[in-house]
Amino acid sequence: MSFHLSNIFKKITCLPSGDIPKGYKTLTGFILDALFPPQCIPCGKKLPHSARFSTICEECFARIPIRSGFSCAECARRLPALVNTCHKGTPAIAAATDFKNKEAQALIHALKYNSIRDAAPPLAEILNRYIAQYLPAGTHPALAIVPIPLHPKRMRSRGFNQSELLAVELAKLDTRIALHTTALTRTRATASQTAVPTHDKRRENVKDAFTAYNSNEIEGQLFILDDVCTSGGTITEAMRALRAKGMRKSAGLVVARA
Ligand SMILES: [Zn+2]
Ligand SMILES: [Zn+2]
């Protein structure tokens, strides 16, 4: 696992990347890149300045497969359409790739646990490719995205919400997307789902964790976006909160399904 010095620099200076004055950022970025060129997170290879992504090489990126179709949030069974006809009351999940893929896993890990924001653009590109194939403009002219929110406490320790960052990067790639970042808030701090051992305990862990705010502007297919779907519990609970406020049945959109 490589590390990105420019990220550490942002952390030390306590500036969210957006607040760093442009020339300053370019200069420090230039010096840091010259001293420590960006590396591909999965394979460690040094990346040239002209590289499309600063966190993954083209060879590793090409090894991330695009998953097909939709699946049930509860049991992961394949669904013929974006409606959950298997376990009703749980959303259908649109997953762009497989969490077993080690390149995708390395990028998600870097984004989530090492706060490497530059891991988001290639993951958004994977989402974009999946959407172009399985949610084409002909059948889905508008896509509304609600990212899974972080509890304010976790937001303070991580510095950013990885799901929101993925949504922002994805919206840059697809003009059909409208972001709704205030439709949902996390009102209860929960343990990380990966730290909870069983399916039932995971469901209990996220119970009543979210509060939704009705948004009349939501148009088109509504998606709850998360980085990874493990047991489907987080997205199911977020959907429950949105429905309680009268928002139409939503589906889950995730980078990877475990
Ligand atoms: Zn690589
Ligand atoms: Zn099912």
CATH topology: Rossmann fold
Shape: globular
Q: Give the strand line-up of the largest sheet.
A: 2-1-3-9-8-4-5
Q: Which parts are unreliable, with pLDDT below 50 for 5 consecutive residues or more? A: 9-22
Indicate the percent of residues in helices. Answer: 25-40%
For this structure, what is the CATH class? Alpha Beta
> What is the SS-derived class?
alpha/beta
Main sheet makeup:
7 strands, mixed
User: How many individual domains?
Assistant: 1
* DSSP summary, beta strand count: 9
Q: Tell me the strand percentage band.
A: 15-25%
Q: Which series of helices and strands comes N to C?
A: HHHEEEHHEHHEEHEEHE
Rg calculated over all Cα atoms: 18 Å
Termini separation (Å)?
Answer: 21 Å
Small-molecule components bound: zinc ion
The appropriate CATH architecture is 3-Layer(aba) Sandwich
- The average pLDDT is 87
Count of helix runs: 9
